[in-house]
UniProtKB/TrEMBL annotation:
Residues 22-190 form the TIR domain. Pfam families: NB-ARC (PF00931), TIR (PF01582), WHD_ROQ1 (PF23282). It comes from the Eukaryota. The lineage of its organism: Eukaryota, Viridiplantae, Streptophyta, Embryophyta, Tracheophyta. The gene is LOC103319122. This is TMV resistance protein N-like. Keywords: Leucine-rich repeat, Plant defense, Repeat.
Length: 554
């Protein structure tokens, strides 16, 4: 991987992975005698207060023989370089060497460079006129060779041509306003590098546009209103991918941002410490406190969120929430966040969003055939379309997956670089029994149902009642002793069952297969032990078995 590819990879990854590539957020290049005790010192303090790691050479290095390689490493390891061009900047060969290195890193690594013109004209820097001309008169008659001096000149011209900031344009030269403006630009550039990784953006644009209208950021009338939006759908349908796309699109528009991933799983693995950890992440992310916020209980976390975040306009993504108490500990009320904040919650449970009182709910949609074929192509062939030899087999996979992105990814990743004979064999296996990795994700919704009765109703529908009238099925289930009205409603809220325009109960094929597989598992493959029978051959076998107990549903 070459340097530019390495930069591209790091800039599209998560904050945690990006921080491993870059040692510092910002490198400050300045002439110490001009601005160290004034402007640059204040700028460095403001960056640090904002949680931005800014390198200042005289704070971290002693001026010794080994300083130059260390300094070059610091420049090379910084995401952004800020150059403070002051009146005597070019007097220092040290500063000019830094500048050459910075411009090399910009070309080689794609490093962002922000020039600041502090009581100097950009044209003097670009053309080496004024005080810069005087400095170069000394350099040219001094000990420096012509090639080095020319490199300095080129670097100054290139830097001055970049989009920068000029003190005289900042509210009549007020330094406090100037520093605030610079801080905003650094945040904008810095966090544009902290994009969450999305492997393949297939079918995202139209879905993103629908959610954007709900989020309503552009509307000036709602700019100070805190809005909560829900993204609801079955497991594996792409809720998290959509939430990442929202984060990547809007994170630069907010003072603070936080993506709380896999909330359900985090808390399931660590019921108490997991929730405290999510509270800490929320606070540290939005306040940019680099992990310095400490507390040891959910109650203290709630109190700190209520006190510290109402002043911050924040974007918060709460991914895969499944419990009201979780949300109450993280985002109980809109006034916990600053005016204009947006909170996006992804979940499999519509009722949870109703309990929270979100402003809008987007139901995640399955992929159409064209989208599904493209996504499958990326995973199975590393291109956006299947190889011609595999086209018919690929369409069989598409029919099996029924537009579920998770299934397309799992099956495609398994089949990549396999011959057609192995594709045929695997498809035959899938038609007999579901893929285990897909089932693990889908089963989370089944296992998360509030009681055994709801699970029994789901299994009955998956085995017997798909495509049948909802009211008719309700009456049958009531006759079996179930609280069918609330039971079916909960299944609908959990995206385990849908109702067609004709009021028929419907279910995704993979959910149907999961339900039937659960019945198989409980009986360990012996039809006489099945709790339900729906295949003619199984019914025949059981009825023909003299030892059958008939403790099954037909």
């Amino acid at each position: 991987m070459d340097a530019r590819k390495a930069h591209k990879a790091s800039s599209s990854s998560s904050p945690s992975s990006s921080s491993k590539r870059w040692k510092y957020d910002v490198f400050l290049s300045f002439r110490g005698e001009d601005t160290r005790k004034g402007f640059t010192g204040h700028l460095h303090a403001a960056l640090s207060d904002a949680g931005i790691s800014a390198f200042l050479d005289d704070n971290e290095l002693e001026r010794a023989e080994f300083i130059k390689p260390q300094l070059e490493q610091a420049i090379d390891g910084s995401m952004i370089s800020i150059i403070v061009f002051s009146e005597r900047y070019a007097d220092s060969s040290w500063c000019l060497d830094e500048l050459v290195k910075i411009m090399e890193c910009r070309e080689r690594l794609g490093q962002q460079v922000i020039p600041l013109f502090y009581n100097v004209e950009a044209s003097d820097v670009r053309k080496q006129t004024g005080s810069f001309a005087q400095a170069f008169e000394k350099h040219e008659v001094g000990k420096h060779d012509k090639e080095k001096v020319q490199r300095w000149r080129n670097a100054l011209s290139q830097a001055a041509d970049l989009c920068g900031e000029d003190l005289k344009n900042a509210d009549n030269g007020r330094e406090a306003k100037f520093i605030k403006k610079i801080l905003g630009e650094v945040n904008k550039q810095l966090y544009s590098k902290y994009q969450l990784d999305i492997e393949h953006l297939v079918g995202i644009t139209s879905r993103l546009n629908n959610v954007v209208r709900m989020i309503d950021i552009e509307n000036s009338g709602s700019k100070d209103v805190v809005r909560m939006i829900g993204i609801w759908g079955m497991g594996g349908i792409g809720k998290t991918t959509l939430a990442k796309a929202i984060y990547n699109k809007f994170e630069g528009s907010f003072e603070g941002r936080s993506f709380l991933a896999n909330v359900r799983e985090v808390i399931a693995n660590q019921p108490i410490t997991g929730l405290v950890g999510l509270q800490k992440q929320l606070l540290n992310d939005i306040l940019k406190s680099k992990g310095h916020i400490k507390f040891d209980s959910v109650a203290k976390g709630i109190e700190m969120i209520r006190k510290r975040l109402p002043c911050k306009r924040a974007l918060v993504i709460i991914d895969d929430a499944d419990d009201l108490q979780q949300l109450k500990a993280i985002a109980r009320a809109r006034d916990w966040f600053g005016p204009g904040s947006r909170i996006v919650i992804t979940t499999r449970n519509q009722h949870l969003l109703d309990q929270v009182g979100v402003d809008g709910i987007y139901m995640a949609q399955e992929m159409d055939e064209k989208e599904a074929l493209e996504l499958f192509g990326w995973h199975a062939f590393e291109s956006g379309y299947p190889n011609q030899e595999y086209l018919d087999l690929s369409k069989r996979v598409i029919r099996y997956c029924q537009g579920l992105p998770l299934a397309l990814e799992v099956v495609g990743s398994f089949l990549i670089k396999r011959p057609t004979a192995e594709w045929e064999s695997h498809l035959e296996k899938l038609e007999r029994s579901p893929d285990g990795d897909i089932q693990k994700i889908l089963r989370i919704s089944f296992d998360g149902l509030p009681d055994q009765e709801k699970r029994e109703i789901f299994l009955d529908i998956s085995c017997f009642f798909i495509g049948m009238d909802k009211d008719y099925v309700t009456q049958i289930l009531k006759g079996c002793g179930f609280s069918a009205v609330i039971g079916i409603r909960v299944l609908i809220e959990r995206c385990l069952v849908t109702v067609s325009e004709q009021k028929e109960l419907m279910m995704h094929d993979l959910l149907r297969d999961m339900g039937r597989e659960i019945v198989y598992e409980n009986a360990r493959g012996q039809p006489e032990k099945f709790s339900r029978l729906w295949k003619r051959e199984d019914v025949t076998d059981v009825l023909g078995d003299s030892v059958s107990t008939f403790q099954v549903k037909f």
